[in-house]
């Protein structure tokens, strides 16, 4: 099982996303599961990883919040929708926990 946080250094939200990811894993009893941090630095890596923005959380290569088919790839900050409709630079912690619960054993 591979849990990965992909990020771009130009986006300041990845530390919070990592903290929320670790908290979600802990709440699921998987606090000891390692999280791989992947820094995406250039367009070649963007294409190779299918990077739609920072932060992106994947489990075994699958995006925890699958982007729309027309979502552009690039070195950019990613935007997430909160349950109340507002936008956020990180996923809602509850939605993150729920997404991980569906993806992890």
Structure description:
- It is a single chain.
- By secondary structure, the chain is of the alpha+beta class.
- It has one domain.
- It contains three helices and six strands, in the order E-H-E-H-E-E-E-E-H.
- The strands form two sheets. The protein has a four-stranded mixed beta sheet with strand order 2-1-3-4, covered by helices on one side. A two-stranded antiparallel sheet has the order 5-6.
- Strand 1, helix 1 (14-27) and strand 2 form a beta-alpha-beta unit.
- Helix 1 (14-27) packs across helix 3.
- The radius of gyration is 13 Å and the shape is globular.
- Helical segment count: 3
Shape: globular
Q: What is the H/E order?
A: EHEHEEEEH
Number of domains: 1
Largest sheet features: 4 strands, mixed
pLDDT average, as an integer? 96
Please give the radius of gyration in angstroms. Answer: 13 Å
What structural class should be given to the helix and strand makeup?
alpha+beta
Q: What percent of residues are in strands?
A: 15-25%
- Read across the widest sheet, the strand sequence of neighbours is 2-1-3-4
Poorly predicted ranges (pLDDT <50, ≥5 residues)?
A: none
The total strand number stands at 6
Percent helix among the residues?
A: 25-40%
**Distance, first to last CA:** 9 Å
SSE order and pairing:
Layout: E1 3-7, H1 14-27, E2 35-39, H2 43-49, E3 56-59, E4 62-63, E5 80-81, E6 87-88, H3 93-103
Parallel strand pairs: 1-2
Antiparallel strand pairs: 1-3, 3-4, 5-6
Helix pairs in contact: 1-3
